[in-house]
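Researcher: Let's do a round of design. I'm pasting the structure tokens now; please hold your answer until I've finished.
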């Protein structure tokens, strides 16, 4: 099975040879090899040439020996016949025959003559002439030779062409016939040197060599070229020593130098060299390809190792028997067991919690038999220290290159942190709900406290007025009635406030009805003026004619206007009297040009000439319980903004160019269907 690589990548780079010139040694070796391959045939050629030369020398020696032998044998035979002549002169006829026979059987001998010690011709082989002439001719041929030493007991050979009957390739030899150590006669033999060569040199030698006999002056005396002329490549000179005469036997082989290219060895060397070069190139290419593949593999391995090491998910591979074949570092860290102790291990595994063992075994058996498709499941694992932790496991089959399943690859996610976070989030949510409930209650209490302040204060002042009237004798009962009527109205208002705040805080749909803002403003004006009057503030109400109606909760909107006007009045406590002016403006403005809602809106502005709002205060203006006043609750603006947003509007403020502040909000004009 394709066992996944262990994350520890051992980078073992393939280097043909270490050092800065890795190719130097192979190249040198190859060059050396080629040099030897080239040198070998050359050497072989040289050896062959030497062999031929040596062979020629040996053969020449053999030929010289053969010539010598032939000459010596002739000499001995002739001397023997000569002695017999001297000893038995009576048998001259027989001996003469023997001499003739000898000359006939030895073609190299052209002529023979035997003289006694008185230089009288005993017998000669010139039979064509008459005897007298013959004797004279022989006498002239031999006895008048200048260098002749007739009394010498040693044989003597001469080269002479002076005599007419001696051809130029001839040689005359004198063999003394000794009797009791004394020269008793001389036997002369004329040799045909050309015939000597032709007869004595064996044919096989003559076929391969040009044989020349040279005299002392290097003149050619005889030549045999049966196999053709010599090539002057292999030559040898050998002295042919005859009694008192020496020749040079020159042999010249007809063989040329061994041809290099025709040599089978050379051919095989060339082929071998070509094969070697070709295989080297192929090897070079193969190595390059391997190096490239290895580089890519190493890169991929490094990438995979980095990827596997960076994974927080544990990875585990098992074969079909459940044996662990691979674990990544994250998995080892998760369970606290090193990879060496895990890889190759069969179930039960060290990370199996004993209490869940049965479940593991059952699941694995099912996976192996294929009765269940592997899918993500949660289980419990055990760390090396015995700690249990929840894991989420995904299994997927491992398939080899033939498509055969060889095991399983699993990704294991330690979900203990996730579970902890889920638990924390649940607890947090519960707390939030509790807080929200508390906050709602608190908000409601604050709003009630804030909003009831005004009606209660008004009731208190009306009832105080009523009591004062009662105490005054003869006071007008209608005044008392009016004061009590107003107190009752404020009490009813307080009741409505409570109801409306309650609804609002619980975020229920409040009673939004089409309202004429003009009416609404007029209804709150008495209360506004009551407060303004006591603060010596002039109130100016500017309401545009024919304002469209808006869909709103009347009580909430009244509270907003009352809160904003009260803040404006309180802000002008230190404003010079002549500037104490509160302006309330209501007008229609177009819908948002940029937005989708183009419904016209009605805008309300509360403008004062008070102390204004600094940047610092502006930042926390709408925060609950933020107040700069000693007796302030800091809830007014917060409630106002919530109420306006609840109506789909937006409460904002900006500085009044004349000094003071402008608070403003707008509400969408209600459409006919809504009204
Ligand atoms: P409270 O009136 O109880 O202080 P608010 O939420 O109504 O609470 O107002 C918060 C603060 O905003 C005020 O204490 C005041 O400092 C500032 N403020 C509100 N309206 C104005 C105004 N028209 N001019 C100047 N300051 C204002």
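Researcher: That's everything. Go ahead.
Model: Designed sequence:
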């Amino acid at each position: 099975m394709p066992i996944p690589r262990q994350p520890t990548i051992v980078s073992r780079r393939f280097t043909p040879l270490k050092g800065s010139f890795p190719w130097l040694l192979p190249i040198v070796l190859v060059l050396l090899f080629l040099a030897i391959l080239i040198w070998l045939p050359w050497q072989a050629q040289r050896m062959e040439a030497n062999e031929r030369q040596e062979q020629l020398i040996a053969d020449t020696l053999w030929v010289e020996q053969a010539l010598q032998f032939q000459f010596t044998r002739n000499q001995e035979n002739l001397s023997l016949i000569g002695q017999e002549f001297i000893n038995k002169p009576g048998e001259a006829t027989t001996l003469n025959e023997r001499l003739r026979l000898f000359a006939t059987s030895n073609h190299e001998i052209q002529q023979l003559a035997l003289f006694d010690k008185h230089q009288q011709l005993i017998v000669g082989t010139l039979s064509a002439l008459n005897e007298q002439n013959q004797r004279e001719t022989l006498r002239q041929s031999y006895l008048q030779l200048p260098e002749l030493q007739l009394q010498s007991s040693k044989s003597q050979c001469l080269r002479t062409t002076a005599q007419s009957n001696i051809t130029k390739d001839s040689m005359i030899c004198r063999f003394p016939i000794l009797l009791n150590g004394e020269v008793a006669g001389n036997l002369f033999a004329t040799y045909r040197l050309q015939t000597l060569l032709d007869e004595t040199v064996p044919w096989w030698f003559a076929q391969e060599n040009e044989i020349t006999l040279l005299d002392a002056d290097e003149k050619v005396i005889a030549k045999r070229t049966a196999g053709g002329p010599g090539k002057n490549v292999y030559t040898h000179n050998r002295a042919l020593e005859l009694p008192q005469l020496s020749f040079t036997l020159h042999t010249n082989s007809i063989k040329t130098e061994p041809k290099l290219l025709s040599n089978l060895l050379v051919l095989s060397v060339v082929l071998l060299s070509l094969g070697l070069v070709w295989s080297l190139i192929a090897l070079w290419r193969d190595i390059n390809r391997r190096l490239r593949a290895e580089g890519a593999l190493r890169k991929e391995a490094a990438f995979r190792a980095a990827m596997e090491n960076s994974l927080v998910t544990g990875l585990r591979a098992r074969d079909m028997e459940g044996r662990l074949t691979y674990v990544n570092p994250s998995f080892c860290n998760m369970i606290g067991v090193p990879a060496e102790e895990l890889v190759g291990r069969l179930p039960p595994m060290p990370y199996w919690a004993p209490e869940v063992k049965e479940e593991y075994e059952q699941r694995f058996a099912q996976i192996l038999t294929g009765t269940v498709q592997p899918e993500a499941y949660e289980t419990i694992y055990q760390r090396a220290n015995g700690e249990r932790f929840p894991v989420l496991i995904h299994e997927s089959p491992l398939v080899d290159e033939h498509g055969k399943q060889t095991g399983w690859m699993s990704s294991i996610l330690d979900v203990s942190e996730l579970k902890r976070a889920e638990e924390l989030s649940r607890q947090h949510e519960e707390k939030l709900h509790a807080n929200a409930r508390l906050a709602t209650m608190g908000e409601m209490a604050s709003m009630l406290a804030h909003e009831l302040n005004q009606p209660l204060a008004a009731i208190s002042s009306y009832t105080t007025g009523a009591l004062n009237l009662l105490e005054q004798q003869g006071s007008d009962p209608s005044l008392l009635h009016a004061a009590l009527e107003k107190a009752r109205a404020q009490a009813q208002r307080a009741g409505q406030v409570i109801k409306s705040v309650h609804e609002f805080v619980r975020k229920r749909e409040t009673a939004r009805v089409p309202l004429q803002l003009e009416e609404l403003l007029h209804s709150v004006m008495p209360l506004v003026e009551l407060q303004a009057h006591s603060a010596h503030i002039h109130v100016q109400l500017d309401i545009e004619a024919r304002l469209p109606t808006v869909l709103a909760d009347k009580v909430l909107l009244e509270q907003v206007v009352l809160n904003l006007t009260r803040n404006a009045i309180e802000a002008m406590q230190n404003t010079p009297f002549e500037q104490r002016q509160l302006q309330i403006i209501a007008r229609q403005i177009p819908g948002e040009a940029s937005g989708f809602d183009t419904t016209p809106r009605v805008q309300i502005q509360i403008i004062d000439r008070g102390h204004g709002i600094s940047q610092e205060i502006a930042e926390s203006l709408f925060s609950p319980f933020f107040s700069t006043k000693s007796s302030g609750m800091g809830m007014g603006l917060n409630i106002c903004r919530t109420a306006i947003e609840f109506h789909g509007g937006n409460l904002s403020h900006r500085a009044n160019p004349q000094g003071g502040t402008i608070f403003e909000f707008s509400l969408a004009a209600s459409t006919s269907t809504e009204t």
